[in-house]
Every structure is written in C-alpha cells, then in structure tokens.
Amino acid sequence: MPKIRLDEVDHQILQALIENCRTPFTDIAKKLLVSAGTIHIRVKKMEEMGVIKGSTLVLDYEKLNLTFIAYVGLYVDNSSSFPLIINEIKKIPEVTVAHLTTGKFAMFCKIRAKNTSHAKDIIFRLDEIKGVIRTETSISLEEVINDKERLMASIFEELK
Question: Which of 26, 80, 118, 154 could form a disulfide with 114 if both were Cys (CB 3.0 to 4.6 A apart)?
C-alpha cells in the first residue's frame, strides 16, 4: 500500500474538522491564511485517498437521556453464527458500537441506555439472540478520554 502524503496544511485542516466537522471551509481558510478553494481541494483529495470517510456528529447524550453506558462481551457458540448475530444486533438501536474480537469474547458491544433497568432490557435482548451463549457486562462510570487530536498529532509526527 503506497504511503499517504499529507503536509502540515492537511494536518491543520484535519484538526479543524476533528474539532467541529461543520466548520465552514471559509473559516478554516481564514485561520490557515489560504483560500477556501485550497481547503475544498485538499479535503476532496483526502476523501479520495480514504483519509476522510465522511463526517460525524457529536450528540449530547445527557440531553437525550441516554447517559448509562455499558460494554457487553458476547460469548458465541460458533463463528458461523456471526452473520445472524450481527443482523440481530443491528435491530437493537441502543447498541451503538459492535466489534468482532479475539480473546475472552467473540464480540464486544457498547450500549447506551436511560438507566440500569433499560440497560438490563438491552442486555437481555442480546442474551436472547440465537448463537449467543452468554454475556458479560461492564458499566462505564465515566468516559475520561475520547480524543482523536492526540492520535492525529502522533501520525503527523511520524510522517515528518
């Protein structure tokens, strides 16, 4: 795979978009002292290279009354059950992330719930999926790091 070539301007564009993906290109251009067209072309280039795969929205889950976070590990009877299990998990909207994993669990899911009772209902739904032998849950007390900026800084440091 060819090495991706990004420069400091690309890095600063990515930082601005990580902070707020809805920042207008004109605002980024003013901050970086380049034209809005330059920002547009560079973002398009990074999209074509696959560095940028879209944008995301950060929700305030507290205002949506979904502050209870738990991580649920799934023990699965057989890896051939994955397609069925994944399809069933997709039917549970409170499962916001799911990974196939190695180690203790075959799958690992992040759930968002209103409270412990709501979380229990979600976990029971996961338990009932055909192919899931059992689950093991850890409750998040507080998210202390959710930071793409440090990772981006280290990637650009390696590219120098």
Answer: 118
